[in-house]
Design brief:
Elements (H helix, E strand, L loop, with lengths): L1 H20 L3 E4 L12 E4 L2 E4 H4 L5 H5 L4 E6 L8 E6 L5 H13 L9 E2 L5 E2 L5
Antiparallel strand pairs: 1-5, 2-3, 4-5, 6-7
GO molecular function: biuret amidohydrolase activity
Organism: Methylobrevis pamukkalensis
Protein name: Biuret hydrolase
Length: 129
């Protein structure tokens, strides 16, 4: 337990140093495109892995040290579902993460799906924008 606390303190300090040089970090939030609802496994580098255990693998180090983050969907040409990108800000600067996420949406770089109702009343997903 002591080693984990020591590592957390070290990593938090290293991230603080990074933010002396940059205002914000954009990084992948997930190692793969958003899975369809109910997907139990994904294939990553040829290996089949459980979806739930691996979808947040890139966000865990950021949460571990308590930095503010906003995850945004980024749609790539020809992809059926978006990839997740995290906007990471310095400690206690949620305003920066939110402002950058808002600007990415305003510029059309990110957009969230908007459900539409079909004639039968079923929800049908779609890309906003």
């Amino acid at each position: 337990m002591v080693a984990a606390h020591r590592f957390r303190a070290w990593f938090r300090e290293e991230m603080r140093k990074v933010f002396e040089e940059v205002d914000v970090i954009l990084a992948p939030a997930t190692p793969f495109h958003a899975p369809k609802s109910g997907t139990k496994t994904v294939v990553l580098d040829g290996e089949e892995l459980p979806t739930r255990a691996n979808i947040g693998i890139f966000t865990q180090p950021i949460s571990f040290v308590g930095l503010p983050v906003v995850a945004v969907p980024v749609w790539l040409e020809g992809a059926g579902l978006p990839i997740g990108v995290q906007v990471i800000a310095p400690a206690w600067r949620e305003d920066i993460a939110l402002r950058v996420a808002h600007q990415l949406a305003a510029d059309g770089i990110t957009s969230a799906p908007v459900a539409r109702r079909t004639e039968g009343g079923q929800a049908e997903g779609g890309r906003a924008g």
